[in-house]
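Slide 14.
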Amino acid sequence: MQSEGPRVLLVEPFYGGSHKQLIDLLQQNISGCSVFTLPAKKWHWRARTAALHFSQTLPICPSHRVLFSSSVLNLCELVALRPDLAHLKKVLYFHENQLVYPVRKDQERDFQYGYNQVLSCLVSDVVVFNSIFNMDSFLSSISSFMKKIPDHRPKDLDQLIRPKCVVLYYPIQFPDVSRPRVEYKVVSRPEEKLDEAPIGSGEFPSSGNHQEDLHESRTDQRPVSREDPGDQMKPLHIVWPHREHDKNPEQFFSTLMKLKEKEVNFNLSVLGETFSEVPGIFSEARLRLDPHILNWGFLSRGAYLQVLLQADVVVSTARHEFFGVAMLEAVHCGCYPLCPKALVYPEIFPAEYLYSTPEQLFKQLQRLCRRPDIVRRHVVKVDTSSYSWTSLKAHYEALLSAGCP
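Slide 15: predicted structure.
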């Protein structure tokens, strides 16, 4: 008996980072998926023109029942260009939203990107957000966003969109890790200039075999005694697994430089791929904090995980965060989180891990630097399994079924 063919169209205009990981996860674990993507380059052009491209490349297939895409795609344009897709169950997934996504200057915000997302919601059957914060910030901003239109403004769009909205956390495939004492410290001190490093989102795709990746040639491994009786008093190891401008590197490095001025000892790992326009604070911090740096820049997946296993504290100074895979991965590996009391973080992390001001962050880090044994004995009160693919798979299967949401 022949199968009836693929039932789900997975369409991703920006096939990279978390967008790629989600599409791959769905394709590998849910039967009947057919995938159509564009490379993760020139995001703004993908948002502008991907609908026209897919209108010419998506096949006409009577077995298709569901169309799933990220909000990078202008779904309204695609359905207008391809009326045969209109009858499908159309699912739009928001990794982020352009109504509140941070820009360096508000004048730089292009109205069209947020407007496209609103139009896509109006034509969708189900609108999925990766966090309550993402959903609420989008819906509550529609009215003020539309006031930028000089006249004849649409009304009550949030009321039309809200009934379609659901929150479904981004599914993370957490590595199978333990936190024993390890034989090696991974020290990455690449010599290449920062502005020559590859463009990336700060996310770390899996390379498949984590154990084989632990000792990549891009790292310098220093032996550490397993039986060191002074282990609890080794300097606090702080990790910052971000590189984007909206993660506020200025605040993070300013805090560490203040610790250095107070002659507080610590070790530092700054992880992630760089992008084409590197904020100047990175080169300044790399020079001034050099004695404290264990790792700087991109690592293989295995080496990255090993650093997380060895680190004590993971810090976010984000100006904006809609979910935060890197922070949850670090917590899964045993790191103590320090996050802003804002954005998505109160939705995921208990109050004891949140700070309200830069001064509070400094005081917390200063205390932990002086007593690193506090975090090394602490069990973080975050159930990362709630955000795992294992826990969320059934919800995604229901989402991609042809029935009603």
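Speaker note: The longest strand covers residues 8-15.
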